[in-house]
Amino acid sequence: MAAPPVSRLNIAVRIGAAVLGGYAFTWGFIALSVALLFAARMEFHDAETLATIVGLLLFVAAFLWAFAARSVAIVWTVLAGGGALMAGAATLVQRALT
Amino acid sequence: MFQNLRLTMAWLHTWFGLVLGFVLMVVFFFGALSVFDREIDRWAIPETRFEPQPMPSFDKVLRPVFESMQPDPGQIELARSRVDGPMATHFPVAKTWGAYTTHRDPVLGVFAGFELPNAKDPDDIIWGTRTIDPRTGKTLPDDQLKIGSQFFYPLHYSLNINWRELGTWIVGFAALVMLVALVSGVIVHRKLFRELFTFRPGKNTQRSVLDLHNLTGVVALPFHFVFAFSGLLIFGGTYFPIGHTQLKPLHDLHEVLESQETGLPHERAGVPGRLASVDAMMAEAQRRWQARGMAGEVGFLTVRHVGDANAYVSIYRAGTDRIALTGEGIHFNAATGEVMREDPPPTVAQHINTFLTGLHLQHFRHWTLRWLYLMGGLLGCVCIATGFLFFVEKRKRQHAAQGLRGARWVDGFAVSAVTGMLVAALAMLVANRLLPADLPGRGDWEQYAFWAAWALALAHGLWRTAPVAQARIAPAWAEQCLAVAVLAVAAVLLNWVTTGDHLGRTLAAGYWPVAGVDLFLLGAAAMAFLAARALRRRSGVPSASAAANAPSRSEAARA
């Protein structure tokens, strides 16, 4: 493959973003979706199913984006930061409900 | 990452596809075999070669079986880390009993979940399973491994690595990478429609291998995507156990609300209760399904809070005639036999979920579709295997010229993952027919045969791929193809010798589970033999490019 050299560190950081960042983002998305849908009176497991379906597709997209994006810092910020924010929001919604 | 999207996607596709391809090969191949897991079971356990049976009488057959059950010794071992203090020796409280059957099961698998005394998690359950002959209630020996449904099938989704569900996580990651590889592959190639009609076997190996890779990837693209995706969804609760961790309080709230709404008790009352005739409940459930215009068999039944005043019985209709596995649950008060609740029609989310999981697990009755599933799985294997071959073909001349060994190692692992895996599976079937019937731990020995054969094939594969380092074809492929052909024929002959069920007899009787496995083995043997011959013929003629890139002397000496 005639590609310009990309540093090993850059590749490792992107793989980390794709796998760990993608997982964190998906977790946050599913958790927040379940909490919000449950708050909107959807049955818990129905909410879980729908959130997981969309979440898994997002995981695939996030994984691809982690390599396609120009800046790996932005990828890490969005995936890990976004995941943490959504997970935190899910806990807040849960507190309000239970 | 690189200067354009296509280069980045090509990098992603190549390297993730290569590394996880070895896992995906196993997942696709044993997934394809799992489509006929029940039939492989019949082949492997000759005592169970009789017609599928409906759910037997609970009162006469199942109840005595359930009442005599205890957790499996293996499960007790696994549970040691989940208790405080010593492990109980007796498990008096059964939380749940269950039995599940399909239109392809002559024998019936039953399970019982017990309270785990001194458990760290008070909701923990320890399981016991058993296989019975539903005609008599007789228990089948545990030593008889159901090679199809208890070895090949779990290999498909867990690699049979049970430590902390590690295998399931590896397979899950591989499935994610499969989806990534499909999307990135489509972006790299773009001309999807043209790939469908492009196969040039006469061109050089690198070109025709890539044609075949694209063809098999594109022709079954929806199949590959839906199966990788629904597989992830089936284990969604394992990969994202949010309802048991972060959102457990919300899940507990949901369970309380649900039990209020359904009237089905969530907890034991702590007061002993009796169990009325479950046969009468099954008859009533079938009467109600018929009244709804959807007469059917019982596919799944459970008793919850066994022996308690809060006990109830749930009876589900078999999904023989549609995609969802089971449904239309009707729940009965265990003591009185009164109907407590009929499940409402499924919600949209339930429809989507049962459709996707049912599509993947396919317990419905449709033999054409079953064969298409097998073909879809095998096409996936061809796609992955040609991916390996393309990787090697593209690099081997350059690596040979530069004295690099990457292509050679990849070829070695590819042989082991493709033909070596077939050798292992066939060695297991051969061992199944050769080991004495009364050998203690027979099922374990069959598994040892599988892993030992695979280890041997790996050693052979790494050894006999040395010529790749000089840009030639590895003899390992032809040799392992021959081994596959010999083992497959041996398995068919051994089945004949040890059980008397040769193809003439099974075909005349129309006993397709065994006839089908035998025919499939013979077909595989013929293809493996032809492949071996073609490979031999090819490796006899040194290719012009290989001669042009003759390796340096030091490289040849090292090889």
Summarize the structure.
The complex is a heterodimer of chains A (98) and B (559). With 98 residues, chain A is mainly α.
Encode the helix/strand succession of chain A as letters: HHH
Q: Which descriptor suits the 3D outline of chain B?
A: globular
The residue ranges of chain A in which pLDDT falls below 50 over 5 or more consecutive positions are none
Interface with most residues: A-B, 41 and 40 residues
Please, what is the oligomeric state?
heterodimer
Helical percentage of chain A: over 70%
Termini Cα gap of chain A: 55 Å
Q: What composes the largest sheet of chain A?
A: none
- Report the C-alpha radius of gyration of chain B, rounded: 27 Å
Helix count, DSSP H or I runs of 4 or more residues of chain A: 3
The number of helical segments of chain B is 21
- The helix/strand class of chain B is alpha+beta
Strand content of chain A: under 5%
Averaged pLDDT of chain A, please?
94
Q: Mind telling me the C-alpha Rg of chain A? A: 16 Å
Describe it for me?
The complex is a heterodimer of chains A (98) and B (559). In chain A, 85% of the residues lie in helices and 0% in strands. Chain A is an all-alpha fold. Chain A has one domain (25-97). Chain A is elongated. In chain A, 44% of the residues are buried. Chain B is of the alpha+beta class. Chain B has a seven-stranded antiparallel β-sheet with strand order 3-2-1-4-5-6-7. The longest helix of chain B is centred in the C-terminal third of the chain and has 36 residues, at 367-402. Chain B starts with a helix and ends with a helix. Among the domains of chain B are: 52-141 and 261-361, no CATH class; 403-559, no CATH class. In chain B, helix 1 packs across helix 14 and helix 18 (503-509) crosses helix 19 (512-540). Chain B is built from 21 helices and seven strands. The chains are: A mainly alpha (98), B alpha+beta (559).
